[in-house]
Fold this protein.
Amino acid sequence: KTPLGSVGTAPLMSLIFAQGCPMDEMKKLKGGCPCACSVSDKSDKPKVPGFCPKAMRAFSMLEPVGDADSKYNFFVNRVADLSGATPDFDDNIYKAVTKAAADGEVENKLAAVGFELYDSTPVAIDLYAKSEALKLSVREMAVMGATIAADGVNTTTGNEVFDGAIAQNVTGFMAAESPHKMRMPFLVVAG
């Protein structure tokens, strides 16, 4: 099995869209207007090597605010529902990411630039670290992608994971956040 890494953004965004996240909040998550026009403020993005501040912000957006355990359980359950399998948790990865966050003073770097989060910074960093420690097989990741493509219906179980009305938002976000150096080829290949 392999760590979810940035693939974990898809289940996270499906949760955020299911909460009915308003467009103003999405603009903050993206760092500006999601249409990539010139209305953008990249100045608030801290430089934290090995960490994704926008992913931490997204985790902080999950409700209920202040309840890290519920947020984590919602996320793990969404990954399991999308993939048809409960993800493995790699404690060594979690410890390494947590140590790197402390050693790299991630909390201080976020605060130094006034990076806006919707929950406490330690909660957002911990949720991010836990998400990095989740592992799925390639097949399970493929099922997750197929479930999103099938408007939120798991293709192996037939269960509805999320309302199909938000599927285009999730896939649109995935396309917009594809690997930056590959954005154009990725969009052409992905259709």
Notes: The CA atoms of residues 54 and 95 lie 21 Å apart. The first strand starts at residue 2 and ends at 3. DSSP finds ten helices and three strands in the chain.
